[in-house]
Design goal:
By secondary structure, the chain is of the alpha+beta class. Helix content is 30%, strand content 21%.
Length: 332
């Protein structure tokens, strides 16, 4: 299959395309690729594969964490007060120094601005706390949990192979922004993983923890939190850095589970990915609100991101917020 970026969504002004957002989308049900747009590109899994990180410790953490702590362990949070409290609560104060996230400012800031970086403000601090707790319960060393030679990383590869096959190996391994290893996947492989997450949602607590507490997975104005809240337990959504969003969807038309992986070519763009995800979910009869409106531009999602059989379902889908003024004189 030829790999190339395609237009996923355009921002048009008075009918003329002013901005084109390029990327790729893969749809998988079970192990079958049912649609691809933009080619089967290779990308790092980044934070989108956190549900599979935590599966390494799903048995050990099941009785040790509350539902809220389980959710923060899968999160890429905004470092809002509720996120910080839960991330710290997983470890004893004497253990918190073991967290290896870099010192950063919060991903998004609301109200009073924070100026002093902290490890806890990092979007992955909740996951690191949960991984450290899991290592303790398994009797694994904790000082090196973020190295690719650690049993955690080997356990993660084993989890992935349960779905992608025993011969699967990543083409690339690198250090992620949170200091954990990140491995490469084909976009089709990421969609396959999230299809399995939907099909096997009752095999552990990961799906339920995410859909029970969508706000803890991201936070205010985060695409994955908004999608999961709107879809009421039938969809899990997980962002990954630099323009990646993965969806695991339970739908009557896809009894083997449906996984959709979206990657934008230009990196992180919450608004563009939000429009794309909204159109995908609308084609499956899920209703997700629009993001904040563009400035006198109209977003137009490329219907080719959808399988041909689903494209008629988004005809007439409005990409304009109901409270956004329409200036007919200027054809805004």
């Amino acid at each position: 299959m030829k790999n190339h970026w395609e237009i996923l969504v355009e921002y048009r002004r008075a009918g003329l395309c002013e901005v084109a957002k390029l990327g790729a989308v893969a749809w998988v049900s079970g192990n079958k690729l049912i649609h691809s747009h933009g080619g089967d590109i290779t990308t790092y899994g980044r934070s989108s594969v956190k549900p599979f990180h935590i599966k390494v410790f799903s048995k050990e953490l099941d009785k040790s964490l509350t539902w809220e702590q389980k959710a923060i362990g899968v999160s890429s949070h905004n470092a809002e007060p509720c996120h910080l409290e839960l991330a710290k609560s997983i470890l004893r104060p004497s253990e918190q120094r073991l967290v290896q996230t870099p010192h950063t400012l919060p991903l998004q800031q609301f109200g009073k601005q924070i100026r002093k970086p902290s490890r806890w403000y990092h979007t992955c601090s909740g996951e690191h706390s949960a991984l450290l707790r899991g290592c303790q319960l398994k009797g694994w060393p904790r000082v090196s949990y973020n190295l690719p030679t650690h049993p955690f990383h080997k356990g993660f590869i084993d989890v992935i192979r349960q779905t992608l096959g025993p011969q699967w190996s990543p083409q690339f391994i690198a250090k992620d922004g949170c200091n954990l290893p990140t491995v490469s996947f084909r976009l089709r492989e990421l969609a396959t993983l999230f299809s399995s997450l939907a099909k096997n949602k009752d095999s552990d607590w990961v799906w339920e923890a995410m859909v029970r507490n969508p706000y803890l997975i991201g936070g205010m104005n985060r695409v994955d939190s908004i999608v999961m809240k709107a879809c009421m337990g039938q969809v899990v959504s997980k962002e990954g850095a630099d323009g990646l969003l993965c969806l695991g969807i339970r739908h009557a038309d896809f009894p083997q589970g449906l996984g959709v992986a979206i990657k934008t070519a230009h990196g992180t763009d919450h608004q563009a990915v939000w429009y794309i995800a909204r159109a995908i979910l609308a084609s499956l009869d899920f209703s997700v609100r629009n993001p904040s409106p563009l400035r006198r531009q109209m977003p137009v999602v490329n219907p080719d991101i959808l399988p041909p059989s689903l494209r008629p379902r988004i005809v007439g889908l409005s990409m304009r917020n109901e409270d956004e003024p329409v200036d007919d004189i200027w054809n805004a």
